[in-house]
Amino acid sequence: FLVGDTRRIIREAAEKSCFICCKMGATITCCQMGCDRTFHLPCAPDGQCVTQYFGAYRSFCWEHRPQQALRPRPSQDNTCSICLDTVEDNISYKTMGCPACQDARFHRHCIQRLALHAGIGFRCPCCLNQEPFMTEMLIMGIRLSKRPPSWQSDQEVGPSDQRHGRCNAATCLCLGGREHAEADGPWQLRLCSSCAAEGTHRLCSSLGNTTCSWECSTC
Questions:
Q1: What CATH number corresponds to the domain at position 199?
Q2: Could you write out the DSSP letters of every residue in 115-127?
């Protein structure tokens, strides 16, 4: 974008309100023709919106998001194939399935975490299908990673007890640098509660002293 285009986009976004949180500054608009719903990317999960992380990076509101077309589940086992907790009987935004075996069911947040950790080895946790499973997950808004599986990377870099020790905030405010960390206070380093592969100083992500968990933008 040119500087003028960037300023125009920022100005237009500042005038749009997020239909989920009702605050201004919504930069994402549903791609469905005729739909003018706008929202913030962090608000998307609460509004059951989908962003496709490939191609044109299209985004959809809850009404126009892509839907999975799966046959009724052959088995009566209503558990997530990843965490083994209960899932809904029907396919929905929060409950997804494998288009290959038609039987695997999993929570959206579970398959998203698996996708990020599995990297290039991402496949159905039940039938191990990679295509068309991966294509379906991309269409449904699951973000994939081109990195090797995290369990392989951990073995390559060193002992399994080695912790991430760097602030990954877009703007690190610590004068001591991104790798400076203290036991408590604003420069205490919090790791992502989902992947533990990214971290932030409390102050750099505006985390209060009572905040016990934090998730990175990827998770």
A1: 3.30.40.10
A2: HHHHGGG---TTT
Amino acid code (one letter) for 183: A
Is 53 in contact with 141 (CB distance < 8 Å)? yes
Distance separating alpha carbons of residues 71 and 209, to the nearest angstrom = 48
Confirm whether 108 is domain-assigned.
yes
HSE at residue 158, side-chain half, CA atoms within 13 A, is 4
Domain ranges, residue 12: 3-60
pTM of the predicted model over 0.85: no
Positive or negative CA dihedral for 143, 146, 149, 154? negative
pLDDT one-digit tens code per residue, 164-183: 788 998 889 999 898 999 98
pLDDT at residue 94, rounded to an integer: 95
Residue 203 domain flag: yes
